[in-house]
Amino acid sequence: VGGGPIGLASAILLANAPHFYDVDIYEQTPKEDLCNFNPAIAYMYNVNARGQRFTKKFQSLQDKLLRDGLAASDTSLVIADGDPTKTISIKKSPTMSKAESYWIPRHKMVNLLQEGIKEHNNSDDANCGKIEIHSGFTCEAVSPIGDDSSINVTLKDEKGRDQDVSGQLIVGADGVNSQVRECLKNGSSLFGEWKNFKSKKFAVKKWVSPSVGLKLKALQLPSGFSIEDSDGSPISLQNSCIASIRSIKANDINSIKIGCLPMTDDVTIRPGNVITRPNHKFWTINSGKEMKEYVLENLKRMPFDMISDEEWDRFAKAKGTSFPYCQYSPGLQASPENGNCGIVLLGDSAHSFPPDIGQGINAGLSDVVQFDKTLRSTEGNLGTKLRAYE
Question: How far apart are CA 230 and CA 305, in angstroms?
Protein backbone atom coordinates (compact mmCIF):
# COMPACT_ATOMS: atom_id res chain seq x y z
CA VAL A 1 0.00 0.00 0.00
CA GLY A 2 1.68 3.20 -1.24
CA GLY A 3 3.27 3.86 -4.62
CA GLY A 4 5.79 6.51 -3.64
CA PRO A 5 9.54 5.85 -3.75
CA ILE A 6 9.56 3.47 -0.77
CA GLY A 7 6.62 1.41 -2.00
CA LEU A 8 8.16 1.13 -5.47
CA ALA A 9 11.61 0.27 -4.08
CA SER A 10 10.25 -2.45 -1.79
CA ALA A 11 8.26 -3.94 -4.69
CA ILE A 12 11.41 -4.21 -6.82
CA LEU A 13 13.33 -6.05 -4.10
CA LEU A 14 10.43 -8.34 -3.16
CA ALA A 15 9.84 -9.37 -6.80
CA ASN A 16 13.50 -10.34 -7.25
CA ALA A 17 15.57 -13.26 -5.96
CA PRO A 18 15.31 -14.90 -3.54
CA HIS A 19 11.78 -13.71 -2.69
CA PHE A 20 10.05 -13.85 -6.11
CA TYR A 21 6.79 -12.29 -4.90
CA ASP A 22 4.15 -11.15 -7.35
CA VAL A 23 3.51 -7.59 -6.17
CA ASP A 24 0.46 -5.35 -6.56
CA ILE A 25 1.02 -1.69 -5.62
CA TYR A 26 -2.00 0.44 -4.68
CA GLU A 27 -1.42 4.20 -4.64
CA GLN A 28 -3.92 6.92 -3.73
CA THR A 29 -2.52 9.60 -6.06
CA PRO A 30 -3.67 9.47 -9.71
CA LYS A 31 -0.89 8.35 -12.06
CA GLU A 32 -0.62 11.69 -13.88
CA ASP A 33 -0.09 13.53 -10.59
CA LEU A 34 2.38 11.01 -9.19
CA CYS A 35 4.72 11.05 -12.19
CA ASN A 36 4.61 14.75 -13.10
CA PHE A 37 5.83 17.89 -11.38
CA ASN A 38 3.28 19.16 -8.87
CA PRO A 39 4.05 22.52 -7.22
CA ALA A 40 1.97 21.50 -4.21
CA ILE A 41 4.42 18.65 -3.44
CA ALA A 42 7.60 19.99 -5.06
CA TYR A 43 9.86 17.99 -2.78
CA MET A 44 13.56 17.60 -3.52
CA TYR A 45 15.46 14.54 -2.35
CA ASN A 46 19.18 14.35 -1.64
CA VAL A 47 19.99 10.66 -2.08
CA ASN A 48 23.18 10.03 -0.13
CA ALA A 49 25.27 6.91 0.51
CA ARG A 50 22.55 5.42 2.73
CA GLY A 51 19.91 5.70 0.01
CA GLN A 52 22.33 4.45 -2.63
CA ARG A 53 22.65 1.18 -0.72
CA PHE A 54 19.37 0.43 -2.51
CA THR A 55 20.03 1.88 -5.98
CA LYS A 56 23.44 0.20 -6.18
CA LYS A 57 21.78 -3.20 -5.83
CA PHE A 58 20.49 -2.63 -9.37
CA GLN A 59 23.02 -1.05 -11.72
CA SER A 60 20.32 0.30 -14.03
CA LEU A 61 18.71 2.19 -11.13
CA GLN A 62 22.05 3.67 -10.07
CA ASP A 63 22.68 4.71 -13.69
CA LYS A 64 19.27 6.39 -13.78
CA LEU A 65 19.98 8.23 -10.52
CA LEU A 66 23.20 9.60 -12.03
CA ARG A 67 21.29 10.47 -15.21
CA ASP A 68 18.36 12.26 -13.55
CA GLY A 69 20.04 13.58 -10.41
CA LEU A 70 22.51 16.40 -9.84
CA ALA A 71 25.72 15.59 -7.99
CA ALA A 72 26.00 17.65 -4.81
CA SER A 73 29.66 18.34 -5.62
CA ASP A 74 28.52 20.23 -8.74
CA THR A 75 26.34 22.70 -6.83
CA SER A 76 27.02 26.26 -5.66
CA LEU A 77 25.53 28.35 -2.86
CA VAL A 78 24.07 31.77 -3.71
CA ILE A 79 23.00 34.12 -0.92
CA ALA A 80 21.27 37.32 -2.02
CA ASP A 81 20.98 39.79 0.84
CA GLY A 82 17.69 41.65 1.00
CA ASP A 83 19.54 44.93 0.64
CA PRO A 84 20.08 45.34 -3.14
CA THR A 85 23.17 47.52 -2.54
CA LYS A 86 25.03 44.53 -1.11
CA THR A 87 27.00 42.18 -3.35
CA ILE A 88 25.51 38.74 -3.92
CA SER A 89 27.58 35.92 -2.39
CA ILE A 90 28.38 32.95 -4.64
CA LYS A 91 30.38 30.08 -3.18
CA LYS A 92 30.97 26.40 -3.72
CA SER A 93 28.44 24.38 -1.72
CA PRO A 94 29.93 22.90 1.46
CA THR A 95 30.76 19.20 1.33
CA MET A 96 28.56 17.19 3.68
CA SER A 97 30.22 13.82 3.13
CA LYS A 98 33.10 12.16 1.28
CA ALA A 99 30.58 10.02 -0.59
CA GLU A 100 28.71 11.68 -3.46
CA SER A 101 25.02 12.43 -3.07
CA TYR A 102 22.48 13.42 -5.71
CA TRP A 103 19.67 15.98 -5.76
CA ILE A 104 16.55 14.75 -7.52
CA PRO A 105 12.90 15.95 -7.54
CA ARG A 106 10.36 13.56 -6.07
CA HIS A 107 8.49 13.01 -9.35
CA LYS A 108 11.76 12.14 -11.11
CA MET A 109 12.58 9.62 -8.39
CA VAL A 110 9.15 8.05 -8.86
CA ASN A 111 9.64 7.92 -12.65
CA LEU A 112 13.11 6.41 -12.21
CA LEU A 113 11.72 3.58 -10.08
CA GLN A 114 8.76 3.02 -12.37
CA GLU A 115 11.21 2.68 -15.28
CA GLY A 116 13.02 0.07 -13.22
CA ILE A 117 9.74 -1.81 -12.69
CA LYS A 118 9.01 -1.81 -16.43
CA GLU A 119 12.47 -3.21 -17.12
CA HIS A 120 11.96 -5.83 -14.40
CA ASN A 121 8.62 -6.92 -15.87
CA ASN A 122 10.21 -7.22 -19.33
CA SER A 123 13.14 -9.31 -18.12
CA ASP A 124 13.68 -12.86 -19.34
CA ASP A 125 13.92 -14.33 -15.83
CA ALA A 126 10.82 -16.52 -15.51
CA ASN A 127 11.35 -16.89 -11.76
CA CYS A 128 10.94 -13.19 -10.99
CA GLY A 129 7.61 -12.00 -9.71
CA LYS A 130 5.53 -9.49 -11.67
CA ILE A 131 4.80 -5.99 -10.39
CA GLU A 132 1.56 -4.16 -11.16
CA ILE A 133 0.84 -0.54 -10.20
CA HIS A 134 -2.76 0.54 -9.52
CA SER A 135 -3.30 4.29 -9.12
CA GLY A 136 -6.24 6.14 -7.57
CA PHE A 137 -6.94 3.64 -4.76
CA THR A 138 -7.34 4.61 -1.09
CA CYS A 139 -6.76 2.07 1.67
CA GLU A 140 -9.88 1.81 3.82
CA ALA A 141 -9.23 -1.22 6.03
CA VAL A 142 -6.81 -4.06 6.71
CA SER A 143 -8.08 -7.28 8.31
CA PRO A 144 -7.07 -10.93 8.78
CA ILE A 145 -8.65 -13.75 6.75
CA GLY A 146 -10.08 -16.65 8.72
CA ASP A 147 -7.42 -19.31 8.23
CA ASP A 148 -4.55 -16.81 8.71
CA SER A 149 -3.04 -17.69 5.34
CA SER A 150 -3.40 -14.18 3.94
CA ILE A 151 -4.60 -10.67 4.81
CA ASN A 152 -7.44 -8.67 3.28
CA VAL A 153 -7.13 -5.01 2.24
CA THR A 154 -10.28 -3.02 1.47
CA LEU A 155 -9.68 -0.27 -1.08
CA LYS A 156 -11.78 2.52 -2.52
CA ASP A 157 -11.26 3.64 -6.11
CA GLU A 158 -11.63 7.14 -7.57
CA LYS A 159 -15.35 6.54 -8.19
CA GLY A 160 -15.95 5.55 -4.56
CA ARG A 161 -16.32 1.83 -5.26
CA ASP A 162 -14.98 -0.68 -2.73
CA GLN A 163 -12.62 -3.43 -3.76
CA ASP A 164 -11.13 -6.21 -1.64
CA VAL A 165 -7.70 -7.66 -2.39
CA SER A 166 -5.62 -10.09 -0.39
CA GLY A 167 -1.96 -10.97 0.00
CA GLN A 168 0.46 -13.02 2.05
CA LEU A 169 2.55 -9.96 2.87
CA ILE A 170 1.11 -6.44 3.19
CA VAL A 171 3.70 -3.64 3.03
CA GLY A 172 2.51 -0.38 4.54
CA ALA A 173 4.50 2.24 2.63
CA ASP A 174 1.72 4.82 2.64
CA GLY A 175 3.48 7.68 4.37
CA VAL A 176 3.38 9.78 7.49
CA ASN A 177 -0.41 9.43 7.86
CA SER A 178 -0.35 5.71 7.10
CA GLN A 179 -3.78 4.12 6.96
CA VAL A 180 -2.20 0.67 7.28
CA ARG A 181 -0.63 1.75 10.58
CA GLU A 182 -3.93 3.27 11.74
CA CYS A 183 -5.75 0.01 10.99
CA LEU A 184 -3.25 -1.85 13.17
CA LYS A 185 -3.50 0.75 15.94
CA ASN A 186 -7.29 0.38 15.97
CA GLY A 187 -7.26 -3.34 15.27
CA SER A 188 -7.67 -4.94 18.71
CA SER A 189 -10.94 -6.60 17.77
CA LEU A 190 -9.91 -7.64 14.25
CA PHE A 191 -6.45 -8.95 15.13
CA GLY A 192 -7.26 -10.00 18.70
CA GLU A 193 -6.88 -13.70 17.93
CA TRP A 194 -3.29 -13.21 16.78
CA LYS A 195 -1.07 -14.22 19.67
CA ASN A 196 1.03 -11.35 21.06
CA PHE A 197 -0.74 -8.76 18.88
CA LYS A 198 -0.64 -5.41 20.68
CA SER A 199 -2.44 -2.56 18.97
CA LYS A 200 -0.94 0.08 21.28
CA LYS A 201 2.56 -0.48 19.87
CA PHE A 202 1.38 1.19 16.64
CA ALA A 203 0.57 4.47 18.40
CA VAL A 204 3.24 6.85 17.11
CA LYS A 205 5.63 8.66 19.43
CA LYS A 206 6.27 12.29 18.50
CA TRP A 207 9.00 14.85 19.14
CA VAL A 208 9.38 18.49 18.19
CA SER A 209 12.27 19.79 16.08
CA PRO A 210 12.87 23.43 15.04
CA SER A 211 10.79 23.12 11.87
CA VAL A 212 7.79 21.11 13.13
CA GLY A 213 4.59 22.92 12.20
CA LEU A 214 6.19 25.32 9.73
CA LYS A 215 4.31 25.70 6.46
CA LEU A 216 5.65 25.66 2.91
CA LYS A 217 4.41 26.43 -0.55
CA ALA A 218 6.25 26.90 -3.82
CA LEU A 219 6.10 29.67 -6.41
CA GLN A 220 6.82 28.37 -9.91
CA LEU A 221 9.79 30.28 -11.29
CA PRO A 222 11.29 29.94 -14.79
CA SER A 223 14.45 27.89 -15.01
CA GLY A 224 17.65 29.97 -14.97
CA PHE A 225 15.97 33.22 -13.89
CA SER A 226 18.18 36.21 -13.04
CA ILE A 227 18.46 38.53 -10.03
CA GLU A 228 20.23 41.89 -9.81
CA ASP A 229 23.62 42.29 -8.17
CA SER A 230 24.61 45.48 -6.34
CA ASP A 231 25.98 47.09 -9.53
CA GLY A 232 22.77 46.40 -11.43
CA SER A 233 24.20 43.55 -13.48
CA PRO A 234 22.07 40.39 -13.80
CA ILE A 235 23.20 37.16 -12.17
CA SER A 236 21.61 34.07 -13.68
CA LEU A 237 20.65 31.54 -11.04
CA GLN A 238 21.67 28.32 -12.69
CA ASN A 239 19.66 25.24 -11.79
CA SER A 240 22.75 23.79 -10.10
CA CYS A 241 22.81 26.43 -7.36
CA ILE A 242 21.25 26.44 -3.92
CA ALA A 243 19.78 29.93 -3.61
CA SER A 244 18.52 31.99 -0.70
CA ILE A 245 16.88 35.28 -1.76
CA ARG A 246 16.26 37.30 1.36
CA SER A 247 13.88 40.09 2.33
CA ILE A 248 14.77 43.76 2.61
CA LYS A 249 12.61 43.71 5.76
CA ALA A 250 14.97 41.40 7.61
CA ASN A 251 13.81 42.45 11.09
CA ASP A 252 10.09 42.35 10.30
CA ILE A 253 8.35 39.29 11.77
CA ASN A 254 6.19 39.14 8.62
CA SER A 255 9.09 39.22 6.15
CA ILE A 256 9.62 36.32 3.75
CA LYS A 257 12.44 34.89 1.68
CA ILE A 258 12.55 32.45 -1.21
CA GLY A 259 14.77 29.40 -1.30
CA CYS A 260 15.62 27.21 -4.30
CA LEU A 261 17.20 23.76 -4.16
CA PRO A 262 19.42 22.47 -7.00
CA MET A 263 18.00 20.67 -10.02
CA THR A 264 19.26 19.34 -13.36
CA ASP A 265 19.43 21.63 -16.39
CA ASP A 266 16.57 19.98 -18.27
CA VAL A 267 14.00 21.27 -15.76
CA THR A 268 11.91 24.19 -17.03
CA ILE A 269 10.19 25.12 -13.77
CA ARG A 270 12.14 25.99 -10.62
CA PRO A 271 10.19 25.83 -7.34
CA GLY A 272 10.80 28.90 -5.17
CA ASN A 273 9.99 27.74 -1.66
CA VAL A 274 8.51 30.07 0.94
CA ILE A 275 8.62 28.63 4.47
CA THR A 276 7.10 30.45 7.45
CA ARG A 277 5.38 29.86 10.76
CA PRO A 278 1.67 29.03 10.34
CA ASN A 279 0.40 32.32 11.82
CA HIS A 280 2.46 34.44 9.41
CA LYS A 281 0.68 37.18 7.43
CA PHE A 282 1.68 35.36 4.25
CA TRP A 283 -1.02 32.74 4.85
CA THR A 284 -3.83 35.30 5.06
CA ILE A 285 -3.30 36.46 1.45
CA ASN A 286 -5.48 34.67 -1.10
CA SER A 287 -5.59 36.96 -4.13
CA GLY A 288 -2.91 36.96 -6.81
CA LYS A 289 -2.70 40.74 -7.02
CA GLU A 290 -2.23 41.15 -3.27
CA MET A 291 0.31 38.31 -3.12
CA LYS A 292 2.38 39.83 -5.93
CA GLU A 293 2.43 43.21 -4.17
CA TYR A 294 3.37 41.60 -0.85
CA VAL A 295 6.26 39.60 -2.33
CA LEU A 296 7.52 42.63 -4.27
CA GLU A 297 7.64 44.63 -1.03
CA ASN A 298 9.96 42.01 0.46
CA LEU A 299 12.19 40.87 -2.40
CA LYS A 300 13.67 43.80 -4.27
CA ARG A 301 16.15 41.85 -6.40
CA MET A 302 13.73 39.65 -8.33
CA PRO A 303 12.15 40.67 -11.66
CA PHE A 304 8.65 39.42 -10.96
CA ASP A 305 7.32 40.36 -14.39
CA MET A 306 8.59 36.89 -15.38
CA ILE A 307 5.67 35.37 -13.42
CA SER A 308 2.18 35.31 -14.95
CA ASP A 309 -0.94 36.62 -13.23
CA GLU A 310 -2.31 33.06 -13.34
CA GLU A 311 0.67 31.75 -11.38
CA TRP A 312 0.35 34.53 -8.80
CA ASP A 313 -3.29 33.59 -8.36
CA ARG A 314 -2.49 29.86 -8.05
CA PHE A 315 0.28 30.61 -5.56
CA ALA A 316 -1.95 32.82 -3.42
CA LYS A 317 -4.76 30.24 -3.25
CA ALA A 318 -2.52 27.20 -2.66
CA LYS A 319 -2.95 25.80 0.85
CA GLY A 320 0.66 24.65 1.14
CA THR A 321 1.90 21.82 3.32
CA SER A 322 2.94 21.58 6.97
CA PHE A 323 6.14 20.02 8.24
CA PRO A 324 5.39 16.92 10.35
CA TYR A 325 6.64 15.94 13.77
CA CYS A 326 9.67 13.74 14.21
CA GLN A 327 7.79 10.53 14.86
CA TYR A 328 8.09 6.77 14.83
CA SER A 329 5.93 3.73 15.42
CA PRO A 330 7.35 1.33 18.05
CA GLY A 331 5.54 -1.44 16.20
CA LEU A 332 6.78 -2.32 12.72
CA GLN A 333 5.00 -5.60 12.01
CA ALA A 334 2.14 -7.92 12.86
CA SER A 335 1.71 -11.62 12.05
CA PRO A 336 -0.38 -14.58 13.25
CA GLU A 337 1.01 -17.42 15.34
CA ASN A 338 1.33 -19.75 12.33
CA GLY A 339 3.59 -17.17 10.62
CA ASN A 340 2.05 -17.73 7.19
CA CYS A 341 1.27 -14.06 6.51
CA GLY A 342 2.02 -10.64 7.92
CA ILE A 343 2.09 -6.86 7.72
CA VAL A 344 5.17 -4.61 7.80
CA LEU A 345 5.64 -0.83 7.91
CA LEU A 346 8.43 0.80 5.89
CA GLY A 347 9.55 4.40 5.33
CA ASP A 348 7.44 7.30 6.59
CA SER A 349 4.78 4.85 7.80
CA ALA A 350 7.31 3.66 10.36
CA HIS A 351 9.20 6.91 11.00
CA SER A 352 9.20 10.42 9.54
CA PHE A 353 11.28 13.54 9.81
CA PRO A 354 10.65 17.20 8.96
CA PRO A 355 12.98 18.62 6.30
CA ASP A 356 15.44 20.23 8.73
CA ILE A 357 16.75 16.72 9.35
CA GLY A 358 16.55 15.83 5.65
CA GLN A 359 16.90 12.06 5.99
CA GLY A 360 13.44 10.81 5.02
CA ILE A 361 14.25 9.31 1.61
CA ASN A 362 17.53 7.80 2.81
CA ALA A 363 16.02 6.33 5.97
CA GLY A 364 13.17 4.85 3.93
CA LEU A 365 15.46 3.25 1.35
CA SER A 366 17.62 1.95 4.20
CA ASP A 367 14.48 0.29 5.60
CA VAL A 368 13.93 -1.48 2.29
CA VAL A 369 17.54 -2.72 2.17
CA GLN A 370 17.43 -3.91 5.78
CA PHE A 371 14.07 -5.64 5.26
CA ASP A 372 15.49 -7.48 2.25
CA LYS A 373 18.58 -8.46 4.28
CA THR A 374 16.46 -9.75 7.17
CA LEU A 375 14.21 -11.81 4.89
CA ARG A 376 17.30 -13.36 3.32
CA SER A 377 19.24 -14.09 6.52
CA THR A 378 16.53 -15.22 8.97
CA GLU A 379 15.54 -18.88 9.14
CA GLY A 380 11.89 -19.79 9.61
CA ASN A 381 8.49 -18.69 8.33
CA LEU A 382 7.41 -15.19 7.31
CA GLY A 383 6.21 -14.30 10.81
CA THR A 384 9.61 -15.17 12.30
CA LYS A 385 11.32 -12.98 9.69
CA LEU A 386 8.98 -10.05 10.35
CA ARG A 387 9.64 -10.22 14.09
CA ALA A 388 13.39 -10.32 13.41
CA TYR A 389 13.06 -7.20 11.24
CA GLU A 390 11.13 -5.37 13.95
Answer: 20
